[in-house]
Specification:
With 338 residues, the protein is of the alpha/beta class. It is built from 13 helices and 14 strands. The chain has a 5-stranded mixed sheet. Strand 9, helix 6 and strand 10 form a beta-alpha-beta unit. Helix 9 crosses helix 12. InterPro entries: Bact_solute-bind_prot3, Solute-binding_3/MltF_N. This is Amino acid ABC transporter substrate-binding protein.
Length: 338
């Protein structure tokens, strides 16, 4: 019920408050700043440091878009959003772009009149428990208290899974990641469920991560990606092809370190088009020929961004998995640049 209320409220806001017909690209250029909605604080994805500087996987994408549109990755205003406000802020034009681990679903794509510009992280819902609980499978969580964000896709998935498996659900509703982490830490619930990437980030932030485990089962598909309003076709294309440029750059071996050399020497026609050497694809987006170069130079290609923020050598420690290139058994795949 709560999910339907939220969907209805935001859909109404999108119809009545959103700047329909506005050219977002021109607006961003006029103010010389991109407004990017991000998680209020999820380690590895989007979080401010002690000096208020934002870093993370999603933050890096916002910076890449700013580099594409404004020529400077620092020209971003990061707006913290929570579960309840994220889509409303986008609908009302308070942010230009939402990059906040939001799942692409049918209802969000249609009822909320949103446009998902692609998938920047293929995720799935998991469960975290303390080792001393003595369980090794989600199937052992029958009649165990579980914290979950109310009104989220995670809450719906949780109810569906327990119903399908004939299990008794003892759900503890929380309003945010922060509340979920706090109540789980205070043992007000015995398990915590959300996207597996979020669980990895939460576990890494604990003082005793070795005492917590993420169970092996993944119970849902959670394709996460950047979101814009549905009536912004040109802006959606800019965001979408910025993401594809980062993915394609990794596939073709274009990195933040070798890009200048490849501009001069690459004989690969796809790389030449991507980097604006032989064709001006940017003109079709209202951009210049070097737009993709700036996206890559801002923080690296998709693989560089992943490794630097959430990869196996970081405290988050995520393997590429489904987020590997299609040539490496993953799902990351960019359409041709031609």
């Amino acid at each position: 019920m709560m999910k339907r209320v939220i969907l209805g409220a935001v859909a109404a806001a999108g119809l009545s408050c959103g700047p329909a017909g506005a050219d977002v690209l021109d607006d961003i250029r006029a103010r010389d700043q991109l407004s990017c909605g991000v998680n209020a604080g999820l380690a590895g994805f989007a979080a401010p440091d002690a000096n208020g500087n934002w870093t993370g996987f999603d933050v890096a994408f916002c910076k890449a878009v700013a580099a594409v549109v404004l020529g400077d990755p620092s020209k971003v205003s990061f707006q913290p959003t929570d579960l309840a406000s994220r889509f409303q802020m986008l609908a009302e034009g308070k942010v230009d772009l939402l990059v906040r681990n939001s799942t692409w679903t049918f209802s969000r794509d249609t009822a909320l009149e949103l446009e998902f510009a692609g998938v920047n992280y293929y995720d799935g819902q998991g469960f975290m428990v303390r080792k001393d609980l003595g369980v090794t499978s989600v199937k052992e969580l029958n009649d165990v208290t579980i914290c979950v964000q109310s009104g989220s896709t995670s809450a719906q998935n949780l109810a569906d899974y327990f119903r399908a498996n004939g299990m008794t659900l003892k759900q503890v509703d929380v309003d945010s990641d922060a509340e979920g982490e706090r109540r789980y830490s205070a043992r007000e619930c015995e398990a915590y469920t959300t996207d597996a990437s979020g669980l990895a980030a939460t576990r890494a932030a604990f003082a005793d991560p070795e005492n917590h485990i993420v169970l092996p089962e993944i119970i849902s598909k959670e394709p996460l990606g950047p979101v814009v309003r549905q009536d912004e076709a040109r802006w959606a294309d800019v965001v979408r092809w910025t993401l594809f440029a980062l993915i394609a750059a990794e596939e073709y071996g274009v990195t933040s370190k070798n890009i200048e050399e490849l501009i001069k020497s690459s004989a690969n026609p796809e790389v030449q088009r991507l980097l604006g050497v032989t064709e001006d694809l940017g003109a079709m987006l209202g951009l210049d020929a070097a737009w993709a170069r700036r996206a890559i130079q801002a923080g690296g290609n998709y693989g560089e961004i992943f490794a630097a923020n959430i990869g196996e050598q970081t405290p988050i420690g995520l393997a590429r998995g489904l987020n590997a290139q299609w040539t490496q058994g993953g799902l990351m795949y960019a359409p041709p640049f031609r």
